[in-house]
Fold this sequence. Notes:
The chain is mostly helical. The chain has helices spanning 2-26, 34-55, 58-77, 82-101, 110-131, 134-152, 157-175, 186-215. Helix 7 runs antiparallel to helix 8 (186-215). It is globular.
Amino acid sequence: MAKRALADHRPWLLASVVAACAYYFLWNNPIGEGIWGILLKGAGVGLLAAYAMRRTRRADGAILVLALALSAAGDMAIELSFEAGGALFILSHLAAILLYARNLRESPTTSQRLLAGTLAVAGPLISWLASGRLDIAAYGAVLGAMAAGAWLSRFPRYRVGLGAVLFVVSDWLLFTRFGPMNLAPLPDLLVWPLYYAGQVMIATGVVQTLRADHES
């Protein structure tokens, strides 16, 4: 039964990885420009949403699917409008915060609380320092809350929590394109791999836990 489930659902993950890798190598190539490039970018996390939809049930699974689908929409929209893409990512983070709030760890340690607090504060602070923009700092507050919630949730910290941290670092690198920090070529090289790796870790970690709940 386990092998059959793996065979049934592995193609969604494999297709997601293929789409994400293809986008990474083609985004600055004429082949990857225009509507096809936008669709290819959205397919990376969009296929993770399809994977989560196939593997989960009930409210928490639906919230995970919603968060991933909104991120995929944000990935595409941001190619046309930075503000529209940011708005969709805010909605995605709010959905993720709801998911983590519904699944808080019963007794987090002091170190876990301190790291979560650090993420919540660093989210807006470093976003502002990197970009010099208050609107991005406001987005960073939601971003930091999402990462803090992931770290305090009952989901695997070194998969979901770390995945959320990778998501945050990816956004911080992206924001340096707007501010005084010139970190080129790091944003071009690392933003997409860090973001996508974070999303994979979040999706698979949450799915693993929800599946264990369903099967117990």
